[in-house]
Design a protein that fits this description.
single chain; 35% helix; 3 helices; 2 strands; alpha+beta; hypothetical protein tt1634
Length: 96
């Protein structure tokens, strides 16, 4: 996991940034702990989806502008879908 995080951080190449790669875990379960860390200013995503990072480069260096997380929506969530999503999030330990 460390090697994957290092490789991804090097691909992004932006200063003052870090990448966390997890296996057999849900990003949502560590998100609040990361938010509480005073050195963390922004979190661009916490996902298991494929991600693309938008990076800008100037004479000073590189910085992350944003993240493309997942694919385009396939429709509008119905009440049944909403209930299933909430059930899944509770299963992961995220309370709504």
């Amino acid at each position: 996991m460390k090697k994957a995080a290092e490789a991804n951080a090097l691909k992004v190449g932006a200063g003052h940034s870090f990448v966390i790669v997890m296996k057999e875990a849900f990003p949502i379960n560590v998100l609040n702990s990361l938010k509480l860390c005073p050195e963390v200013c922004s979190i661009f995503c916490a996902t298991a989806n494929p991600v693309e990072v938008i990076v800008a480069e100037t004479g000073l260096g590189r910085g992350i502008l944003g993240v493309i997380d997942g694919s385009s929506p396939k429709g509008v969530e119905a009440e049944k879908d909403k209930a299933e999503r909430k059930k899944m999030l509770r299963k992961f330990g995220y309370k709504l």
